Description:
Blueprint: H1 3-12, H2 14-34, E1 39-48, H3 65-76, H4 79-89, H5 99-109, E2 110-114, E3 123-130, H6 133-190, H7 199-240, H8 246-266, H9 272-289, H10 301-376, E4 382-387, H11 400-425, H12 432-439, H13 453-458
Antiparallel strand pairs: 1-3, 1-4, 2-3
Helix pairs in contact: 2-11, 3-6, 6-10, 7-10, 8-9, 9-10
Amino acid sequence: MDIWFHMARLVRQLHWVLMFGLLGLAGAAAIMELRAPTYVATARILVESEQIPGDLAPSTVRLQALAQLELALQRILARDTLLQLAARRGINQTAALSPDDLIRDLRTRIEMTHAPGRDAAPLVSISFQGPSAQLAADVANDIAQMILQEDIATRTQTARKTLAFFTQDVARLEAELAAQDAEILAFRQQNADALPDSLAFRRSQQTTGQERLLQVERQIGDLQDRKAKVQQRQNALAAKTPTVSPSTEAQQLAQLEEDLATQSALLSPDNPRVKMLLSQLKGLRQRITSPDETSPDPLTSYHVERAEIEADLAELTARKTRIHASMAALASSIQATPSNAITLGNLERAQANTRLQHDQAVANKVRAQTGKMIETLRQGQHISLFEAAVPPLHPQGPSRFVALAAGLALGLLSGLVFVVLRDHFSKRIRRPADINAALGITPFATLPYQRSRAHAATAQPQG
Length: 463
């Protein structure tokens, strides 16, 4: 490759390269003049840590700061919010954009960035591109304030909903506990005689009742034997002494008075034996004082003793009946105690579980109240405006010098490409190698083309 030949050709056609360079320079200058400036303003938000240690008073709002900021920004990028922002700040009033185009344009202008890495400073930048420096700063500050308000509203609402949930849960569990208390009380009252806590006492009562029943049965047997003996003795006396003499009646009266005095000192006036002695004594006196009047036969000691025995038998029989009834009731209650114990245990276990849930709900409610107070006073983790956006001094993008240099370089490169392509596709013969390539012969010598002065003056330059 003949480098010197190509360099000479480039020097001869340098005017084309310079012409394209001037065109590129002029185009860059025109673009810089016609291009609307774009200003970028940035506001910075700081994610502050909680002011109160979490082990002392934890907040109930557990939100990741960056995730919350992303969520707040997405809510701001909603259609209605962006349209309200554009109307409030007069964005794109001169441009005839449809609402959809305006929304897409605003979403491309708003940007949120944060320093990558785990140990990076918790700073988040909110940027906005605007046609003027003041508009870019105002919109960036508006977006930052909207994010702050969204964070406050979200945290406060979350804490309020948490407290409302646990308050409702505590009320529900208290009502459930009250219902369970009433159910257990009603069951205890309904089965007061068959509860497991009195089972040992009722079994001891059952043993005591059996002993009392055996004792009563022995007493009844003794009285029945006594009654039979009294009856046999009376039958023997009736066979020997059919009538009673007056002297015998006086002796009997004295005996009755002595027996009545003795029994009155030992027994109460309502005792059947005392009453029978009184009746016998009254009848015997009437018979002695009025012998002619007809009166019923006085009660003898046989009748008194027999009446006493029959009264004791009646009392013991009634006592035996009561003991049998008490024993049957005890047996029924003891038999029903296991099932009552199971039912009562289920009720008490359900109540214990509900009480445990109630205690946990009360503790959660207290923590929710503390968390709500922390979020209201902004003592938990929150975001704050670290640095407000200020109007930028220069528009975004390359400077005028860089743009002109880039236009000049592009023009020169275009001119160079044009010269190379022009020589490549040209069919003119400029050197012996072209003759060899075109005709396939090797020239012995070459003579330069000689032009006359008139031809040189009128003819165009030969490429």
